Amino acid sequence: MIGHKIFTKQTGAHGKECNKVFIVERKYVRREYYFAILMDRATQGPVIVASSQGGVDIETVAAENPDAIVKLPVDIKRGLSLEAAQGLADKLGFVGNAREEAADAFVKLYKLFLAKDATQIEINPLVETSDHQVMCMDAKFGFDDNANFRQQDVFSLRDPTQEDPREVQAEKWNLNYIGLDGRIGCL
Q1: 140: β partners
Q2: Which helix (H) or strand (E) holds 184?
Q3: Which pLDDT score, from 0 to 100, does residue 187 have?
Q4: Are 30 and 132 in contact (CB under 8 A)?
Q5: CB-based contacts of 24: which residues, under 8 Å, 6+ apart?
Q6: In three state form, how does the secondary structure of 34-64 look?
Q7: Active site (catalytic) residues
Q8: How far is CA 111 from the centre of its chain?
Q9: 39, 119 contact by CB (below 8 A)
Q10: Quick one: 139 exposed, middle or buried, by C-beta within 10 A (0-12, 13-18, 19+)?
């Protein structure tokens, strides 16, 4: 696998060379959920987007079953309270000890979001295992480029080989490049 190209929705038709493999303990999943914290222009602050239908494309879930999506705006000055996190866990269907673990994970992820100047934290899937543990199985993080000076520990982990080479090249000139279909881009 290492040294070979992999092809997924995220890599596009050209694929990406695999240069790292993480080996983890196998877990047996009982239920899959979706959890994300994003910056929301409408509320001018963080919003939690969650669903009991995780492990799939969340845009498809939103289009086919919008009631399955829970949105929770968070007041950036107050933060995410344990009570609000427990309420979210209830809405998603967590019960018993898994409810408390999920709420604790939500609060910790929100604190991480703020502490590291994140623009996005997406966990898909967030799972409840067969032994009722709550775990983040896959994640996507985005960070505010303007916080680079403040978050050097985060930005030092960056792997430009996994990024669009056009974006990497543009960054050398302090430009932001957004690739579009065909031979078009936006600077």
Answers
A1: 122
A2: none
A3: 63
A4: yes
A5: none
A6: EEEEEEECCCCEEEEEEECCCCCCHHHHHHH
A7: 34, 122
A8: 14
A9: yes
A10: middle
